[in-house]
Amino acid sequence: MKIEPTLCAGIQAELPHLRPLAQQLAAQLQIPFIEANQKLTANAIYLQYHTDGLHIVSTNAKSKSLSFHIDFSDGLYLRRLQTSDKNQGLAKAVGFKPHYLPRVLDATAGFARDSFTLASLGCRVTMLERSPVLAALLSEAMERGSYDHNVADTLERMQVQCTEAMKYLTQLTPEQAPDVIYLDPMFPERKKKAQVKKEMQILHQLLGSDDHTPYPLQLAINTAKNRVVVKRPKQAEDLNNMEPSFRVTGKASRYDIYLADSD
Fold first, then answer.
1. CA nearest 139: which of 19, 18, 29?
2. Of 75, 192, 202, 219, whose CB neighbour count within 10 A is largest?
3. Angle value at C-alpha 31, between 42 and 169, nearest 5 degrees
């Protein structure tokens, strides 16, 4: 089932001193700036500057609106710092070793949780995000997190670029090629009735979703110096029906590894 993406309808500032930030981002993203006292349209996506950072909001006519923001200093990301070690599945999948810290290109950045984990291990990670709204959320969160000594070193090893993966990969020279390219397609639509987490609901609304969207897997294999890692639900079919070189399997998901010719 295909879900069409939703364009961002505008940006607000919670308090007067946040208006310049909101107006600057409105100009950058070419979206309307909306005064704080103006009612938001139902069934739309908005950005809002709050005292704790930039939020993305999904309004709904019948139920409570959903709001989410990225905070690299909160418990979810900090737990990844505390549990990050060479034995976990993601580290094994990218080929991490104490003497080898691969340069990773995360071609599907999303909320950057896996990128953050890899950077916490010492890898340098370039994140690609095709949505200007989500790229703005990531950039603002990284700027805010740079003032927190707990995560500043990790965030220094991360950078985000707003671009399509296909376009980016085709423009790389062999010298610029990353050691590892990481792909995390959004999980297929769940057959169970349980609601997915609010951040995934917002992500689907913002980006759209299509179980049959072709990902640039072959291009990634041709580009990466060592390997391509694809995150999949544990029981899902192979991405683009391409069998991997090997797999690293966890409780709910797995990593399919496609070795480059040079690996």
1. 29
2. 202
3. 110
Q: How far is CA 13 from the centre of its chain?
A: 24
- What whole-number distance in Å separates Cα of residue 21 and Cα of residue 24? 5
With 0-12 / 13-18 / 19 or more C-beta atoms within 10 angstroms meaning exposed / middle / buried, residue 6 is middle
Residue 134 is given by DSSP the state H
**To 5 degrees, how large is the angle CA 165–CA 167–CA 173?**
100
* Token pair belonging to 207: 């980006």
CA atoms within 13 A on the CB side of 62: 0
- In the chain the domains, ranked by start, together with CATH numbers, are 8-68 (no CATH), 75-259 (3.40.50.150)
Cα distance between residue 214 and residue 194, in whole Å: 27
Residue 90: HSE in the Cβ half-sphere, 13 Å Cα cutoff: 22
Sign of CA dihedral 75, 142, 219, 121: negative
Look over the chain and give the mean of its residue pLDDT values, rounded to a whole number: 87
Q: List, for residues 46-97, the tens digit of each pLDDT value.
A: 999 999 999 999 998 666 788 889 999 887 777 766 665 545 899 999 999 8
Asked whether 54 and 140 are in contact (CB, 8 A), the reply is yes
